[in-house]
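Thread title: Can someone regenerate the structure for this chain?

I was given the following input by a collaborator and told the matching structure tokens would be attached. They weren't. Posting the sequence so someone can regenerate them.
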Amino acid sequence: MVGPVVAERLHDALQRLFGREAPVRIHAWDGSIAGPLDAPAVRVHSRRALRRLLWRPDELGLVRAYVAGEVDVDGDLLDALERLAPFGRSIGRRPDLTPADRSELLRTAVLLGAVGPHPKPPPEEISGAERRHSIVRDKTLSGAHDGPLGAALRAQVFGSTLVHSSAYWTDPAGTLDDAQRAGLDLACRKLGLTEPGPAGADGARVLDVGCGWGSFLLYAAEHYGVTGVGITLAADQVELATKRAVDAGLADRVEFRLADWHELDDGPYDAIIASGLAEYVGSARLAEYARTLRGLLRPGGRALLHQVSQRGGDEVVPERSFIDAYVFPGAEILTLGTIVDTFERAGLEIRDLESFREHYARTLRSWVANLEAGWDSCTWQLSPGRARVWHLYLAVSALAFELARISVHQLVAVRTHGDGRSDFPPTRTSWTLPVSPE
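Best answer:
Regenerated them for you:
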């Protein structure tokens, strides 16, 4: 039987695995405690957590233990992750262990009763087979893993607007819903949408690629009189977006389809909005994607691309990451330069580029707070493991944007006329004037 020294041995094991002292205060299953007094408290409930790290001594091993509930973090998760961020940079890959390190780790595992077969990953992890054969159908908490109870959860986390991308924080004291409406209105103005003309003339015809629950098209139809089509690969999104259109009296103006971007052939559109698709299209098909969007635009038509990008020159960790294994399998985050260059080569002129990095960080923090406020409901609807996945994902993402490890931009592009005309105003005034959406 092991005495009350488990925490000290775990602390030493982490130091050997990751090459530096772990800045955490470990509370072990035997009641022992080790680590700096002012460090975030990490509770290790089971020997299985150590076994996972022995078999997979990297980010994925730690995440598996957390998702399975074998490891917990006391207090505010965002605060703890912020304090652990420098340490986190060293655990993305498997460590290069010396023979002495391996021998001591094995000895620790034997003493703590943690030796055994490789534990199965938590059921929330997306297997290799699922990753190879699946199409990314959703980027939010309404995915196939979440079951039919997601409606209340969506409103709990994303607010009444049900916008699942970055808000636009024009008022420091504003609410998430205020900021999301400001972002929707800004997008409409960047696309050059205007009120319908006299005698009931129709407004612009708009395509929303990756429309989510229909929030942008519904806003644009109500406030700017557009007609349009939204496409998504999530059937539940089509169902809810269509219901929202009916409830708002806009079903004769907007249509939502279960379709992919390369399946469309009903252009031209006056404007296209696409949020976060490039990382799923990937570098191999990005040029085809860009040419397709251009082909769907009329001459003079605008495209608004809302896109996450990695910082140029940042080192890419070769091991499978938490995001790939649990959230967005197969996603490829490209550099901003690659995205701009590819769309320019496809014949779309980039006319404006705006960073939304700080806006997205604040939006993610709001989603984290909303998830935590409804934690009991979320764990009931999702399962404790799935709730942990989304809690960790939103928190890690907020920090990644705050620390400038990744960024997000809005790009406005135009398909110019044959004679080079863009139909753009000479200044940004038309979309930078402060607007208070109703």
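The mean pLDDT is 85.
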